[in-house]
Amino acid sequence: MDKKVKLKILLAALSIVAILFLIIGLAMYIRLDDPEPTSIPTEAPTKIEGHYVDSEYGKYIKYDEQEASTVSEIVEGYNRTILTSYQSYQDFINQIGYESRLTESDFDNNYYIIAFAENDSCKIKINEIKSIKTVNTDIDNRIIIEIGYENICENCSKKYALFLVPYDKNKINKNTTIGQIKYTKENFRKCGNSKAKEVEEKPIIYLYPEQETNVTIKLLKTEKITTTYPKYDDIWDVTAKPNGDLIDNKTGRSLYGLYWEGINYSSMLQEEGFIVKGTDTISFLEDSLAKLGLTEREANEFIIYWLPRLEKNKYNYIHFSGTEFMNQEQPLEVNPKPDTIIRILMEYKPLEKPIKVSKQELKAPKRTGFTLIEWGGTELK
Q1: Per the domain annotation, does 14 fall within a domain?
Q2: Shared-domain flag, residues 153 and 259
Q3: Could you report how far apart the first and last alpha carbons of the chain are, in Å?
Q4: Domain boundary among 164, 187, 210
Q5: Do residue 173 and residue 224 come from a single domain?
Q6: In Å, how far from its chain's centre is CA 94?
Q7: Fewest CB atoms within 10 Å of the CB: 207, 215, 220, 311?
Q8: Please, where are the H alpha helices in the chain?
Q9: 222 — phi, psi (to 5°)?
Q10: Burial (Cβ within 10 Å: 0-12, 13-18, ≥19) of residue 24
C-alpha cells in the first residue's frame, strides 16, 4: 500500500473521531444547559372513611355511598367474600384506598363479609343492614344479608355502598356461602321526574273458591293505581266460581280476572335472578312459572303478554318477586280470606351481554282450598 493511500485512510479515521468528539461535546453542553426539571409534589389520595353502625346484629362498618369510579370494579370482584383474617382485611382496604377501621382484636371472634351494593338509578338510596340470617340446606350453609333502601328524588348517578358485616367465625365452615344479598324497600316518595318510577304492568288476579262464593277485594294503596278493570271504586265485588269464572256484581258482566296497573317506586337489580337469552324465553318461562305455582292456562296468558317484550332482546335479567314483596307493594284485603295466595311480579332488564347473578331458587306453596293467584311484571329502567 503506497503512502498516499495510507495517508487518506488516516485522515478519514481522524475525521470520524473528530465528529464523534463533537457530537459528545454538544450533547454534554445541552445537558448542562438544560435546567433541572421541577418536581411537583403529589398529595396522597384521600381515603374513604367508614363508620360504625350499631344494630341488633352487632356492630358493622358501612362505607357511605360514593360516586362510582374504577374502584367499584375492584370492590365488585370482592362482593360476598369472607375476610377471615386481619391481614386479608388490610390487603383489601389498601387495594381500594379505604380507611382502616378494624383492629386485629376484631377478628378474635368474627369474620367479616363484604357486601357491596350498587345502583345506577336516580331513585335509590341505600340505607342500613335490615337482617342477617343463615339458611341451612343439604348442600351448604347460606348466609343471607338483607339491606334496606328507599327511593329519593335527585339527579341520576351511579353510586355504591360497601358494608363489612361481622359474623361469628364459629358458625362459618368450608360449606358456608353468601347465598344472597337482598334489598328491601323502606319507604317511597313520588318524584316529579317520570323516569324515577316504573310501571307494574298487568297484575291480574284469578280467584278459585271451592264453591261459588261472593268475594270482595280492596286495594290498600290506591295512590299507586293508574288503571283498573273492571273499574275499581273503593272495592271489587264479584261472584267467583271454582273454575275461575267471575261475575261482576255491579255490572253483571262475566270476567276471568281482575286487572290493575300501578306505579312501582322500588325496583332494583337483586343479587339473585336469571340471565336468559331472548331466544330461550319460552322454555324458561314455561319451566319457571310451573315452579312458581301457575297452571298451564295462567302461564299461557303470562307468556302471551310478555313474550314479545322479552324475546326481542339479546339477553334479559329476570327476577321473580313473590307474595311477601307484593303484599308490601300493593296489600290486598280479601273477604273471605283465601287459603292459598300466590302473587308473582317478574322484574326484567334487557341486556346486550350477560352479567353475573346468583341463580334464584323458585318455589311455591301447594294450592289448597280457596286460592288467589296474581301475576304481573315490570321493566327495570
Answers
A1: no
A2: no
A3: 91
A4: 187
A5: no
A6: 26
A7: 220
A8: 3-33, 71-78, 86-96, 281-291, 296-310, 323-329
A9: -65, -20
A10: exposed
